[in-house]
Write a structure and sequence with these properties.
Layout: E1 3-8, H1 13-25, E2 29-35, H2 40-47, E3 53-58, H3 64-79, E4 86-91, H4 110-126, E5 130-139, H5 148-151, H6 163-166, H7 178-202, E6 207-213, H8 228-237, H9 250-262, E7 272-274, E8 277-279, H10 288-302
Parallel strand pairs: 1-2, 1-4, 2-3, 4-5, 5-6, 6-7
Antiparallel strand pairs: 7-8
């Protein structure tokens, strides 16, 4: 039966690969990509080859008002039958800034806005439009472990604080540095896992929620805000690591994301999928008190 999957972060990197695999493996999917107004139409046209059905809705994930407008438009399309029943949401978009001082129009630190609040707002505004069985997949990161084994020392581990602090600029030491920007990134990915656990507790039956870890994937657009040397290393040097167990190629990570979205491997709701298999996330990522506190805070921030 034809159904809709809404996806952020489909324009480049593992998201672009995943979108192509989803459309190839599941001809019944109507893929609705959330993209910037300047690129959404072209992205949808490029994906809609061979009779595949792809639409787009414009949104700037750095603006909660823009996300709210996009979600409202999706709800309207579903209600009017413009889109087939909604069966999936893929929150794959993510940013990593070179500091922890970048603020959105909403007055919130931008890493926290894009990586946490934007996807939460989509989930909450669409939750009563999902047609069970449905699946929410949020792209996490093994940087949330904070150890050398998982990030080779390139990204500092998360530094959890009250969500009211994390949502403000300057939440980390030396906030004008790259290290602070990367700490904001790993902390936002820990927050994403916390929210997946809360979705399991709070969303209606029939809506699964899964966190997906692509591993370290060099050569994507994640470092697009970094300095020239870091961008060069990500594009030209670090991709060599995909020949080792320390990194994942963009194609492999994207294919694995598509598999999780489409239900292979088979997972239970609340799972953490590390590339192609279910695993446990960090010990720190299982904390019901933090999860509940974060839920209350993001509900306030997004004013659902």
């Amino acid at each position: 039966m034809e159904h809709t999957i809404v996806m952020t972060g489909a324009s480049r990197g593992i998201g672009r690969v995943a979108a192509e695999h989803i459309l190839r493996q599941s001809p019944d999917v109507h893929l609705l990509v959330v993209a910037r107004p300047s690129s959404g139409a072209q992205l949808a046209a490029e994906l809609a080859t061979g009779g595949r059905t792809v639409s787009h809705v414009p949104a700037d994930l750095g603006s909660l008002d823009s996300v709210r407008s996009a979600a409202t438009e999706i709800r309207d399309w579903l209600d009017r039958g413009v889109l087939p029943p909604l069966r999936g949401f893929v929150g794959n978009a993510g940013i990593q800034n070179t500091n922890a001082l970048t603020e959105t129009p909403d007055g919130v630190e931008s890493t926290f806005t894009v990586n946490v609040l934007a996807h939460h707002l989509f989930v909450r505004m669409l939750q009563d439009r999902f047609a069970p069985p449905s699946r929410i997949v949020i792209t996490a990161s093994d940087t949330h472990f904070g150890d050398f084994k998982h990030n080779m020392g390139m990204v500092p581990g998360p530094a959890w604080k009250s969500p009211d602090i994390l949502a403000r600029t300057g939440a980390f030491p030396k906030p004008d540095t790259v290290v602070a920007g990367r700490a904001a990134y790993s902390t936002s990915k820990l927050a994403a896992i916390y929210l997946v656990h809360e979705y399991v507790r709070r969303l209606p039956a029939g809506i699964d929620a899964v966190a997906y870890n692509p591993g370290f994937v060099p050569g994507t657009g994640l470092a697009r805000h970094a300095g020239p040397l870091s961008r060069f290393a990500m594009r030209r040097i670090l991709p060599v690591l995909t020949l080792t167990p320390f990194a994942t190629s963009r194609n492999t990570a994207g294919r694995c994301l598509a598999d999780v979205v489409l239900g292979t491997p088979r997972t239970t709701t609340g799972s953490y999928v590390d590339r192609s298999h279910v695993d446990r996330s960090s010990q720190e990522s299982y904390d019901p008190r933090r999860e509940s506190e974060l839920w209350d805070a993001v509900e306030r921030f997004t004013a659902v």
